[in-house]
Amino acid sequence: MPGLKRHHFIDLSPFRASPAFARLWIGSTLSGLGGQLTIVAVMLHVYALTGDTFAVSMIAVAGLLPMIAAGLYGGMLADAFDRRIVALIAATVTFVSTLLLAVLAWGGLESVAWLYVLSVVNAAANSVVLATKSAITPRLLPRDLLPAAAALQGITVGIMVMAGPALAGILVAFTGYAWTYTIDVVLMLSLFLGLWTLPALRPEGVTVRPGLESLRDGMRFLKSASNIRLQYVLDIIAMTFGQPIALFPAIGVLVLGGGPVTTGVLTAAIALGAFLSSLFSGPVGRVRRHGVGIERAILVYGAAIGLFGAVLLAAAAGWFAPPGGADADAVNVPLLVAAILALAVAGAADNVSAIFRSTMMQSAVPDAVRGRLQGIFIVVVAGGPRVGALYAGVLATATALWVPPLLGGFVIIGLVAILVRLSPRFRAYDALHPVP
């Protein structure tokens, strides 16, 4: 591409340095793509059965407490036992729950209750898998390649979230829910190959038996790790006030039009931004001040989410509306394009923040407590959007669909700017001398 040098593109060195990492990345990417099919399909399934946006938002909320417990306990398991075995067992639970979704859909036996229960099981098991895999990565690669590995994770997220939701919308619209869940079951098999071929990965240093003392030990470390603690808080703020995904099914029907296809396209736009920012992440890997990088990325994220809310406000006011108004069959094309651009910027900014946050976690945290800290990290990353789904669902039900993202963007910008200015140690963080 003219004008772009090789060092602007993503660094593929982790693949060459560690074939085990490469296999795990491929398995995680394919299984993640299938997981996104199921996530979006369940959202659409519940909306089809209830017609209620609040019911859709409650899918995420229902899984919050089990996911928190599983993430914390999974981190303790990863710090006490072979991380390869822990991840394999948790992945098996995820596989079985997805298989049950497919069986129920093929038999016409699905219900809102079953969709909720199996989604909760899936979320809990996935939190264990993610916490364990994150603790595995620093054992497969040298520290100087961890930023590149985090950027490759952005490619994974980009592929699975960009293709997954769009494909889910198309599959649900043209083939139904049973086929969508079944494809996830098949794709998930690749994760087992990636995990099975790993070497034994017992934690280094002194291990602590899973339980309250292990959790307290991890919390004591976190209490002394102000940089790690603040990045958790910043991410919770961004995900709580800047996650409008639970609103997408209703936006596709009531605001922008297009129904399930619009739901998939809007979700895919976030991933497109993440994918592109990872593809051109070469300069990101050379940034040393990760605290400043996190701050600036989240501020851009908040601005993009606020812009998305403004687009929805314009649509609600009738701007560029098709004749007869937008509905499941008629799309407000100009504002849909604007919404896609805003969400793509949000996805890119969130991914850049994630690269810095992940590198800070994996570089600054000792291996002996890395599983527990990754468990807490996964709870933050996955729990924040669930709280955000509740915020968006309740506020949208009480007001309008454009209010949560527009208000949330302003809240994110204000809170993040204040908290980082009050933390000079975080702003001074140097990747060459990582201090938790």
TrEMBL record:
Entries under InterPro entries matching the protein: MFS_dom (IPR020846), MFS_trans_sf (IPR036259), TM_effector (IPR010290)
Membrane-spanning parts: 21-48, 54-73, 85-107, 113-136, 148-172, 178-201, 232-257, 263-285, 297-321, 333-356, 376-396, 402-420
Sequence ranges assigned to domain Major facilitator superfamily (MFS) profile in this UniProt record: 183-436
DNA damage keyword on record: no
Predominant location category: membrane
CDD domains: MFS_MefA_like
Pfam families: MFS_3
Keywords assigned by UniProt, alphabetized: Cell membrane, Membrane, Transmembrane, Transmembrane helix, Transport
Gene3D superfamilies (UniProt xref): MFS general substrate transporter like domains
Record localization: Cell inner membrane
Domain of life according to the entry: Bacteria
Membrane topology category: Multi-pass membrane protein
Protein's recorded name: MFS transporter
Species this chain originates from: Microbacterium lacus
Taxonomic classification: Bacteria, Bacillati, Actinomycetota, Actinomycetes, Micrococcales
